[in-house]
Design a protein that fits this description.
Blueprint (H helix, E strand, L loop, with lengths): L11 H11 L11 E6 L2 H11 L8 H7 L3 E7 L1 H7 L19 H19 L3 E5 L6 H8 L6 E2 L2 E5 L19 H4 L14
Antiparallel strand pairs: 1-2, 2-4, 2-5, 3-5
Helix pairs in contact: 1-5, 2-6
This protein binds flavin mononucleotide.
Flavin mononucleotide binds next to strand 3.
C-alpha cells in the first residue's frame, strides 16, 4: 500500500485497464452486483477528501500524502442485485431469505474487484492503497457524488505514482508478520506447519 503520492498524473489507460480487470473479478452467480465511482479530475478528488476528512486544510502526514493521488476509485457493492439474481429461475432463492447467504457475497466480490485494481496498478509501476470510508462520512460521500441507495461503497482506492519521500507508515512497520506456521493448518486446525516444516 502506498500512502504518499507524487502529483504526476497517471496514464488513463492504466486506470481503464484496472477497471476492466475489476469487472472480471470472480462474482457469485455472475451477479456483477457492483459499480465503480472513478474520480480522476482534481476538483472531484478534492471533493472526496472534503467529504471524508476533517482537516483537508491542515492535513496530517497520511492525509497530505493520500490527497496527492490523482485518482480515487470507490468500488461499490449492490446487495439488492445479488438478492435479485439469486431469485432467478436457475438459482431459485425466491424467498430472498438473507439467512441463505453463507457470507455477504456482494461485499466479498467487490473486495475481490478492488484487489484487481490494486494489482493492476502495481503491475504498471503505480502505487495504490485500499482504505475504509469512516461510517460517519458515508452520507456525505453519497451526497457529493450521487451514489444511489442500492449501492454501498466498500471503501476507496487511491492510485498514483509513489513519491520519492517517506510517507505515513503503514501497520506493517508496527507489527510483525505472523509466521506461516501459525496461519496454515494442515489436515486439522492446530496442526500448523509451514511447507518447509
Ligand atoms: C479492508 C481494508 C481496510 C484498510 N484500511 C486502511 C486505512 O483506512 N488506512 C490505511 O492507510 N490503510 C488501510 N488498509 C491497508 C492496510 O493497512 C495494509 O493492507 C496492511 O497493513 C498490509 O500492508 P500491505 O498491504 O502494504 O502489505 C486497509 C486494507 C484493507 C484490506
Amino acid at each position: 500500500m502506498v500512502r504518499n503520492y507524487a502529483t504526476e498524473p497517471v496514464d488513463p489507460a492504466v486506470v481503464d485497464l484496472a477497471l476492466r480487470n475489476a469487472t472480471r473479478a470472480p462474482n457469485a452467480g455472475f451477479s456483477q452486483g457492483w459499480g465503480f465511482l472513478v474520480l480522476d479530475m482534481p476538483e472531484d478528488v478534492h471533493r472526496f477528501w472534503v467529504a471524508t476528512a476533517d482537516d483537508v486544510d491542515a492535513p496530517d502526514q497520511w492525509l497530505s500524502g493520500m490527497m496527492r493521488a490523482p485518482v480515487v476509485v470507490l468500488p461499490c457493492s449492490s446487495k439488492a442485485a445479488y438478492l435479485r439474481r439469486y431469485a432467478e429461475d436457475d438459482k431459485g432463492w425466491t424467498d430472498r431469505d438473507e439467512s441463505r447467504w453463507p457470507k455477504p457475497f456482494w461485499d466479498m466480490d467487490t473486495a475481490m474487484a478492488a484487489l484487481l485494481i490494486l494489482q493492476t496498478a502495481t503491475d504498471h509501476g503505480l502505487g495504490s492503497c485500499f482504505f475504509g470510508i469512516p461510517p460517519a462520512r458515508e452520507a456525505a460521500v453519497r451526497n457529493a457524488f450521487g451514489i444511489p441507495e442500492d449501492h454501498d461503497p466498500v471503501g476507496a482506492v487511491t492510485i498514483g505514482h509513489a513519491a520519492d519521500t517517506t510517507g505515513a507508515a503503514g501497520s506493517p512497520t508496527r507489527r510483525r508478520r505472523t509466521p506461516m506456521a501459525d496461519l496454515v493448518h494442515r489436515g486439522r486446525w492446530g496442526h500448523g506447519s509451514s511447507p518447509s516444516a
